[in-house]
Amino acid sequence: MTETQxxxxxxxxxxxxxxxxxxxxxxxVRQIDLRIIAxxxxxxxxxxxTPGAKRSRRAAVLLAGSxxxxxxxxxxxxxxxxxTMPCQRPTPRHERREAQAVERFRFDQTAEQSGSxxxxxxxxIEELLCGCRNRAIIExxxxxxxxxxxxxxDRIVVRLAQRLLICNQxxxxxxxxxxxxxxxxxxxxxxxxx
Length: 194
Hints:
By secondary structure, the chain is α+β, with helices and mostly antiparallel strands.
């Protein structure tokens, strides 16, 4: 497996982890896709958060990508030839920054080492928790939620990542079918008020 194929595999696991965590927490996922922007592999998971969703649950979905990519990094996935991947030029400024962050990011590094602290998911977590007095508590709960969601749905995460590598985009009925298979986790008693 080439370095590029390994990166595709990591990004697919990253996006699958976002989606499965969101579904396990009761949020809906509208679309997941993989593409190449300006030579960098990029993935996107479009989650529809319910109004008034707790910060720890929203942070868990954002945190899930990096944790999932690390958790499942030893799984073997089949990567199709790179020529089948849709390519685009980055247009908006945030897409260019995201492409640069993806290019620099290595999943075995911390956010500061990878240079992706203020872009993508990590920037979303920073924005979500900016000014929170109990930030460490929220981050701890988010981390536990992700670990629980991914560990009970581990086979589904890997299967979704593999499907994403083949199709490059999943939406609509494909995601609804997947949502019925995901084991939801109970957060009512463990996540009160945050």
